Amino acid sequence: MRRFVIGSARNLIESSRQKYQFERSILSSPYRFLSSSPAADSPSSSSSSSSTMAHPVSLNTINPKVIECEYAVRGEIVTLAQKLQEEMQTKPDAHPFEEILYCNIGNPQSLGQQPITFFREVLALCDHPAILDKSETQGLFSADSIERAWQILDQIPGRATGAYSHSQGIKGLRDTIAAGIEARDGFPADPNDIFLTDGASPAVHMMMQLLIRSEKDGILCPIPQYPLYSASIALHGGTLVPYYLDEATGWGLEVSELKKQLETSRSKGITVRALVVINPGNPTGQVLAEENQKAIVEFCKQEGLVLLADEVYQENVYVPEKKFHSFKKVSRSMGYGEKDIALVSFQSVSKGYYGECGKRGGYMEVTGFGADVREQIYKVASVNLCSNISGQILASLVMGPPKVGDESYESYSAERDGILSSLARRAKTLEDAFNKLEGVTCNKAEGAMYLFPRIDLPEKAIKAAEAAKKAPDAYYCQRLLAATGIVFVPGSGFGQVPGTWHFRCTILPQEEKIPAIVTRLTDFHKSFMDEFRG
């Protein structure tokens, strides 16, 4: 299908090019100015001509890769939810619910999560340095936030937070991030390996742009996967090589599955360039065991693959028997250095306990690439000039938070622990609720911000979905939204084993709203199953 679309687009472009050359030859002729008819320049003639001319931009003339890419977490269900919300503003009684509950996207502060005070104090002081010299500031801001703001401003040329920075990010902030990585992993980190970006997503796009040369280049991606990966691979013209996580073993990642998919792709002439691993998992919420990670590192080393480690949920681990280990730490503990494995690690200020999605901060740590390739990565970063300065500052704060003995440490720790413990309780409550629903099974919520329950739908519901020209899980989610105002994302937007159906639910609505979500969902699910039973 991909080749057909691209082939059709090429034919279209070629015919358009030939038409353009023909018209250009006519227009460039010296005789084009010799028309004896005054009507040629008349407004009515021009108007008539333009009215019959095809629009210069249509679905047939835009890049087919744009049409191919999809992003489910802001897809059709969310568009419907936004329309319902607009209706409710003018007609509050139009629907059987009082508010739309967005459980579709990892956007914590939109659902009531409060920002970390220390982070916001430092940001405020950096954005308006004039107040640092005012006596009132000492009473409004903690001493360590004032000190940190001075430190950061001293690292910025001219203390100008509204100016462009170095394309990799402000050097002093990269120093802080490198120190944070080293403290986390116990292995050295080089600030020159760090590229600050507007969240993790642009870093992923940058690596896809670097690695994908044509549709013959493949990227191994987990299924289910976060749609950023399928979308970016499509946009950059590559091929997604799926490997399936094992739902029966808690969404386990089996190296045997990686090998099978790699060999299958190579037999089709696909050159697999990289392996994407999301840990903790999105949308699946699993946390990889260290031994599993070692096997993955060994696989990438043996097969010559770049390891793309999406680690944006590294703070979101909710079960005592699991712990986050970065792939950098794992590979270094195995004795593998720069010359042994190419590894790119992604981190973001949008997730964790901070949830600063709108500030667009993040970074990638790029290791195991030659100096010549690093120059090319820097060139691509330079095209975008730099990432935003507030996001850069936040990334440095996330990786260098208050320490024991700092004035803000106790309040910072209380805020962080309060958010994470509440997320763990919400995850458990929703997990238990899903497992009580008829035909629904949900794996343990080990980490991240989501649950990905499987739903076995009655045959009549599947046929009703087909009649509505919807995937069965999309049909279920659409009906759920119309009846309850709850927004879930269909599993078909993330990929799943054929013949199985799922939906993704965030654990982010505030804790006091979780019981209402459970009640609404339970009542809807019972009536839905009764409607389509037998």
From TrEMBL:
Gene Ontology molecular function:
L-alanine:2-oxoglutarate aminotransferase activity; pyridoxal phosphate binding
**Pathway(s) served:** Amino-acid degradation; L-alanine degradation via transaminase pathway; pyruvate from L-alanine: step 1/1; Photosynthesis; C4 acid pathway
Which principal EC class is assigned to this enzyme? transferase
Q: Which residues form the Aminotransferase class I/classII large domain?
A: 158-519
* Matching SUPFAM superfamilies: PLP-dependent transferases (SSF53383)
| Keywords per UniProt | Aminotransferase, Pyridoxal phosphate, Transferase
Name the Enzyme Commission number(s) assigned to this protein. Answer: 2.6.1.2
Membership in a protein family: Belongs to the class-I pyridoxal-phosphate-dependent aminotransferase family. Alanine aminotransferase subfamily.
Q: What name appears for this protein in its UniProt entry?
A: alanine transaminase
